[in-house]
What does this fold into?
Amino acid sequence: MTDTVTPISTRVVHGPDRPGTPALEARSLTKHFKVHGGLGRGAGTVHAVEDVSLALPRGTVTAVVGESGSGKSTLARLLTQLIAPTGGELLLDGEPVRGDARSRRAYTSRVHLVLQDPFSSLNAVHTVRYHLERPLKLHAGRRLSREELDARVLALLERVSLTPAESYVDKYPHELSGGQRQRVAIARGLAVEPEVLLADEPVSMLDVSIRLGVLNLLDELREREQLAILYVTHDIASARYLADSIVVMYAGQIVESGDAVRVTDAPAHPYTQLLLSAAPDPERVEAPVLRGRGAPPSLVSPPSGCRFHPRCPFAMPVCSEQAPPTLPARDASSARHVAACWLLDPEQASDESRIDAAAEPPAQAAPSGRSAGPA
Amino acid sequence: MTQSQNGGPAVAGRQREAVLEVRGLDVDYGHGPDAVRAVSGADLVLHRGEVLGLAGESGSGKSTLAYALTRLLRAPGVITGGEVLFHSRPQGVDAGPAETVDLLAADAATLRRIRWSELAVVFQSAMHALNPVARIDAQLTDVLKAHRRSMTATQRRERAVELLRMVGISPDRLRSYPHELSGGMRQRVMIAMTLALEPQVVIMDEPTTALDVVTQREILEELMQLRERLGFAVVFITHDLSLLLELADSIAVMYAGRIVERASAAELFRAPRHPYSLGLKGSFPSLHGERVRMEGIPGSPPSLRSMPSGCAFHPRCAFATDRCAEEQPLLVTPAMDLPGGQGRTAGGPPSDRSSACWLQNGQEPPPAALALPFPPATATSATSDASATSPAATAGAGSPSAPSASPADIAPVSLPAPAPAPAPAPAPAPVNATSGATTATPPLGSSS
It folds into this structure.
């Protein structure tokens, strides 16, 4: 499957730029699903995730943004090793991850997944205590005493701000609100002392008024426990709020990545611009103009060249012929703001006015990095 | 209650004519001692051609309200009080006379006549609302067969093609089954079906919640264009306040079964008067400016079974006083927004907004964040958040713009469209500003 990997983009690793070895790194991760066509149609391949290289350093939040079908959830599942990649490799603390059962078990205690729906990810017939004790018992590696278990369970609840912990520990999921349930789910994820937390749409099922509470909790976990967090979402505004870096996916590929504020203030890829123009924004003065209508392509037979070119308002001949390389965004303050678009190639996009007309006015040059984060 | 009678036809001509009035609507789930009140004393006015947003979290009663006013509420839901007046003004060839019907008292035959042809609903899940084993054309022509008896099969088919074109679907999809369409297309088919009989009111219950943002935006754009062309009014129910602020003319915010604030979209965005509206508005991270930590609203919404005493929001409210825990505040115009009040910028349009909060009864000045003047005194405050701006410059304290206006005279102006305002207050959705004019003469879609 390595033939689908474009040689140029393999060198670009997306995600926040931090010194040292990232907690989790994905190199050219690719996932193809075999599908059976209908009668007489034969089998096909869904190119769900294509050549994704992503680094998740400690103490950072990386947001993966995209529409449904963009491959963002497949990426999260690949990173948990719930599904095996077709190509590419995972590095945990710089060490390649092996696929045998023992290593997988060790892996699950260091990389943990928080699911979207706290109403179905908790077992209705068990108490909060049961949910939190299970991973403690399974991953401790030795027998824990009752007192030790109790103390750890209470400490976990306090870490996710469910206080006083004693009043929550014997409750059943139905006695908790959606936000509290999601906190229990996060606490369960923390029970194994992971280094990496993968959160797949952790707030989309929650009521609006309590979403920020959960996002702020993730922020605190990054800060306090130096977790590497992957935040998968379709809501680019919440990604901007929480994340250090935003990675934008379209049709299984990363099309743009960079500092969260930079990507949302000065999007370089036409698809990111489309996403931003479609997002609800009460401060918008005029009705937005959508540039690039239509729907994402079929991933069984993705378009040639750039997968966005059939929808792209700026498509050039080269876009349908050759996949674009990942290039630094124009006037990017750091080399980490990159986009896979031919418009950024000076040789191809001779008519510069086109991208300039498309780019939103680069708002105030917000300072990049942690200082701007919701601290 | 007093507010709901303002928007009558006499006030500001045809554009502000009410088409649907809800007065004191109460809805319970269950009977006797087990009953819980899902909607209490809801008052709403929907004007012709306007988009009225109903915002609230799950369990706030917004969907129940919509189902109750269309009489689609199923047991154990019971409507226990109030009235829903539908001022019908049918258009088209086979139109009946203009009339006012109390939907809650109407018999089955009247309801059958009004539903769909004059008052139609788009349900949340197009996936479930379409029949999976019937083709699109059968579902589109079915409603015509039932309500337009005089149409021939060919005419019905032509109308179905026209309806699909109207929502941007090519007619060769007529023979498709729902599962062959994408989510966005299914929702478009739902909208086409809803508009098949050219209703005057369309109630949309979270119509785009399950869709991707780009699809959502496309469908909303189409919907707004259709509304301008066909002139129907929309009740738009969603939990996404940031979307409503952009889309709606006026917004009613619901919490725990009550409407806690009612205002134009611009007023609600620039100068909320209820702590819950303020908190809800602050729960949506912005796409612009400096990133600041936001807190949302502490706690979680109450269960209908254990409703807090007094104001249902008081346990989560940062400004709550003893009175809030004891007495339920009424939905009235905030003291500062009465003519001459300090909440109105001099020269600004009068307001019919209201808020159910003890802080707004004029006895003590409300907290700064809930006392911003509207329209904003300076044009520069476009992106500043509410808590950062000082309400101090309440310039027009002594010079009301319309001295003669008693509360009953105030036209419910939703947007400062005629612009007597010195500050160019940015309207959140310019589409709305023009809609009033176009809706005055709704062209009938059947002619194209």
Observations:
- Chain A touches chain B through 51 residues (CB under 8 Å).
